[in-house]
# Entry
Amino acid sequence: MKIKINNILKSDTTQETKENKRRRPYEKPDEQVEEDKSVNNNTVKKRRRRVNTGLDVSNIKENVKNLIFNRNHFSRGTYSLLLVMVVLAVTSVIFTTKSYNALNEEDYVDFTSNEDVQAVNNNIDKEDIEDIEEQSNNTNNVDVQDKDDVTQINPTPAVVETLDFKSPLVGNVLKIYSTDKLIYSKTLDMWKTHDGIDIEGKMGEAVYASEKGVVDKIFNDSFLGMTVVISHIANYKTSYSNLDLNVPVKVGQQIKKGQRVGNISDTSIGEIKDNPHLHFMVFKNDVTIDPKSVLD
# Structure
């Protein structure tokens, strides 16, 4: 009986060994699998405990160091991007701080009472009044300028100068002006026209300008003798002949009314037999006219 039982046990063990041999090399025995399961359950429980109790600070520091100094995981572009992000963050913080400080430094009106509101309204009213006064002053200035412009556009009319001829010599008229009737000439012993008037005077007596003007000509005529011609306004001219050779005026000289222009002499060859006299002529537009028509 003992032998049979041993044989049965041996057969069972041999069958177990055979079965173990038949298993795949990577498969573990059932006992080992159960042990592994118990180990895994214990690790999961430990991890859950860590999560519930909090993070390990030392592990965090090590992970950050590995993140920063691990060149295998991050490239230069990544570090550059991180640096730009940090700079932008710092810049935004600085700008926000400055803006906040600037807003705090501004002065604001606190309308805490009716008196403050009334004071502000009074200031506004004063500014409006000043603006209105300034506008009125500007309009007044414009009106004054317009008046000045009107004065310039319509000035007072200028005084028109008139001629008032005076006799250049006080004396009797020896010969009158005559262009349509003949007059007898002693020197020439003939009848002829006379284009001026002969005013009797004394030898060397002064002759005066009949009206103000400018000396136009001074010449010694072969028939009328030494002659001075003065130009006046309105195309008038006066001529003084039979003067002394030494005349006290020059061509272009301004002459006043009543100013001496010469002295009576005997330089007129064509009238030398007549008594001492001044041969006086008046021209209008370079044409002779009767001197008596302009003399007083």
About this structure: Residues 143 and 149 are 10 Å apart (CA to CA). The longest strand covers residues 213-221. Residues 114-153 form the longest helix (40 residues).
